[in-house]
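Database export, one record per block. Field names are fixed; values are copied verbatim from the stored entry.
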Amino acid sequence: MRIVVFGAAGRVGRHAVRLAAERGHSVTAVARRPEGRAGVDERTGDVRDAALVAAAVEAADAVLWCVGVTRTSGGDVGRGTLPGLAAAMGGAGVHRFVGVSGAGADLPGDRKGAGARFVSGLTHRLARDLVEDKEGEYRVLAASGLEWTQVRPPRLGDRPGTGRYRLTSETPGLRAAPVARADVALALVELAEGRDWLSAAPFVVAGDR
């Protein structure tokens, strides 16, 4: 497969690039700064650059979206960019999209208990731009016609990946363990390889599948 990773220099994106390449895929890595990775087609620039995005997705089989709000990105980087990305994918005949969201995002159909509602409320106060942008991404994807999936980790950790994770519609509780960023990246790559969890935003938690 040819897999395009947006946000390829980020803390999840760089794992996604590495894992996709290790699994034998042809990888195009889009980021604001190059990483100098051998065997990877690196495209340097901002995801708001429509020409860069359109060129990157040509002849792709799947897109991984590892972009999040940062101090320099602007608070609407996701919901502002995804309409153009979806249009570029549609024009190129690319259907599979897998992205990272977060458990703090409140989405239609969620059945969050008291603990999870507390976490969501706290996230909306402390990281308002990030969580509102991810909720906006969901709305764009739901209207896009793409074969999309968003994964929602409760918390992210930098420990080494375990190669184990579980996707679930059950909301993680307050004591949910952090998920290694490498394991979130593995979930993205494996979802891109198939068609599970279409038009869905499952939670990704630590543990066996």
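Remark 1: The chain has one domain: 2-205.
Remark 2: The helical segments are 13-22, 50-57, 77-92, 114-126, 128-142, 181-192.
End of record.
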